Amino acid sequence: MTENVGRETYSAARVKALESLLIEKGIITSETVDKVIDFFEKDMGPFNGARIVAKAWVDPAFKERLLADTPSAIAEMSFPRGMAGAEGENMAAVANTPDVHNLIVCTMCSCYPWPVLGLPPYWFKDPTFRARAIREPRKVLKEFGLDVSESVEVKVWDTSAQIRWFVLPERPEGTEGWTEEQLAAIVTPESMQGAARVVVPA
Questions:
Q1: Tens of pLDDT along 21-57?
Q2: CA 177/CA 179 separation, integer angstroms
Q3: 72 in active site
Q4: 9: number of Cβ within 10 Å
Q5: Cβ neighbours for 95, distance < 8 A, ≥ 6 positions apart
Q6: N or C: which end of the chain has fewer CB within 10 A?
Q7: C-alpha distances in angstroms, 41 versus 35, 37, 117, 120?
Q8: What's one GO MF term for it (predicted)?
Q9: Is 160 a catalytic residue?
């Protein structure tokens, strides 16, 4: 974990240096950078995915449509423009159940459903994670703090430019009667990646 933090810090410094150079050369402006950041803070991110998950938890018919035709189901909801645009083409959801746990990975690069999960975390892009998640997903999940029982099947979905997967996590016990807003507040990006379960705050 410490090694990953070091890599992420190093990568962040390189990105900052590249950004400064592009601004200095007049290729982009600081306003352009601010607009991109604002877009992913307010319009595209895991808060969208959390709303989708919450609706699926309370509306079985919507859940069925979401799993059958994810883009069409998402289009039913009120979201900003661009949900089906860059990095949102051909999104597909898979549901965790008591018998199956799903994990998403991109073995080739870092394809990711940005509109519903936001920007991919460093570990998702890490070559070591990408290789090990395919070979030994149960062990990788345990290192994330998620111990999946041997009786539960672990399925790994290789996301790509052709299809971008995300996970519909299981609804935790103790949330009966909660509103969609309350449910959305406990859904995490990690749970929609399959790297964690949704838990009710103590």
A1: 666 767 767 665 555 555 555 566 899 999 999 999 9
A2: 7
A3: no
A4: 11
A5: 63, 67, 102, 167, 168
A6: C
A7: 10, 6, 11, 13
A8: nitrile hydratase activity
A9: no
* pLDDT given for residue 110 in this prediction: 81
Coil, strand or helix at 188: coil
- Tell me how far CA of residue 49 lies from CA of 10, 62, 127, in angstroms: 29, 14, 25
pTM for the whole structure: 0.81
φ, ψ for residue 165, nearest 5 deg: -85, 150
> Out of 11, 20, 109, 149, which one is annotated catalytic?
109
Instruction: Compute the distance between CA of residue 70 and CA of residue 145 in angstroms, rounded to an integer.
Output: 29
Helices (H) and strands (E) in the chain, counts: 11, 4
Active-site residue (options: 30, 106, 151, 160): 106
Asked about 111 being catalytic, the answer comes back as yes
Residue with tokens 């996590």: 169
